[in-house]
Amino acid sequence: MEGRKVTGWAARDFPSQVNDKQSFKHIYTKTGPEDVVFKVLYCGVDHSDLHQIRNEAQYTTYPLVPGHEVVGKVIEVGSDVKKFVVRDIVGVVCMVGSCGECMRCKTNKEQYCKNMVFTYNTIYKDGSFTQGGFSSAMIVHQNYVVNIPEKTSPRAGCTVTMCRSDGLQSVKTVHRDAGPSVEERAILYLEAQDRAIKVGILGLGGVGHLGVLIAKAMGHHVTVISSSDRKREEALTDIGADCFLVSSNSAEMDKYKSSLDYI
Ligand SMILES: [Zn+2]
Ligand SMILES: [Zn+2]
Predict the structure, then answer these.
(1) Which of 1, 47, 93, 233 has its CA at 20 to 30 Å from residue 16's CA atom?
(2) What is the model's pLDDT at position 104?
(3) Confidence (pLDDT) at 160
(4) 83 CA distance to ligand 2 centroid (A)?
(5) Are residues 109 and 8 in the same domain?
(6) How many angstroms separate the alpha carbon of residue 210 from the centre of ligand 1?
(7) Residue 62 has what pLDDT?
């Protein structure tokens, strides 16, 4: 297919709003042999979208279609795509490309590639400008598309891609050249334990949620430490943490001092 016109919601400049009155048409170059075309079903919003919309990192190019926590339904695949078929539910996080040739790319660590291409606000290999998931559809190389399992609702899939992309964002901004991200190191550490240990999860945002679920799935004892009591029920009942501490309650914090193996 020769190019595909999609409609997105774009920030035009700052201050500007991103909504359905800010429609912006852009054309993808033709679908390559390894490209996956999908209709966007859901797209998360997180603070890095706001940073980019407001040009807070000083490198936003307008018009900008944000959105890097994208879930959609496959409507077309290139001739060499083997991992996906039409009607699969798929997700895309904050990167859509990398050089494919460096040591990092060749060892499945594309997120550390010096030529990583972000989902939006970046020049793609073909010279086009990447635009994000607040769009009717996206075209992404199969290596940067993930499968959303059937058991996961597409809407919940956004949350999972968000946690992953937040991990990648921290790689980009904090320690892109310093090996695995904080989240990856934590998962590797928990995996390496030969017995159940007492794990503390600090804060119950998107990444914290996933941390609780992963640590519990590995059989560890999980304590959530939060700044207020607001998320107690969510932590203990909804996602199955074993213990909940409020960090501003110094008596409680004292009582549990040195009780955790890993935070
Ligand atoms: Zn590379
Ligand atoms: Zn995010």
Answers:
(1) 93
(2) 86
(3) 63
(4) 25
(5) yes
(6) 28
(7) 92
**Last residue within a domain, chosen from 135, 153, 171:** 153
Q: For residue 200, what are the β-bridge partners?
A: 223
Residue 37 banded pLDDT, cuts 50, 70, 90: very high
Query: Which span out of 16-20, 140-144, 149-153 was modeled with the highest average pLDDT?
Result: 140-144
**Alpha-carbon distance values, 53 to 1, 68, 88, 216 (Å):** 31, 13, 30, 36
User: What is the pLDDT, as a whole number, of residue 178?
Assistant: 45
Nearest ligand to the C-alpha atom of residue 100: 1
What CATH code is carried by the domain that includes residue 217?
Answer: 3.40.50.720
Closest CA to 55 of 68, 44, 64, 43: 64
Between vectors from CA 202 to CA 200 and to CA 208, what angle results, nearest 5°? 95
Could you say which ligand is closest to the alpha carbon of residue 110? 1
The order of strands in the sheet holding 35-43 is: 137-141, 35-43, 70-77, 89-92, 146-147
Tell me which of 18-22, 43-47, 152-156, 219-223 is least confident. 18-22
- CB-based contacts of 75-78 (< 8 A; 24+ apart in sequence): 75/37, 75/38, 75/39, 75/137, 76/1, 76/31, 76/36, 76/37, 77/35, 77/36, 77/37, 77/142, 78/31, 78/32, 78/33, 78/34, 78/35, 78/36, 78/142
Question: What average pLDDT does the segment 231-235 reach?
Answer: 95
pLDDT at 175: 36
Average pLDDT, the chain: 86
Number of domains the chain contains: 2
DSSP 8-state class, residue 73: E
Ligand having the closest approach to the CA of 70: 2
Q: What is the ipTM of this complex?
A: 0.91
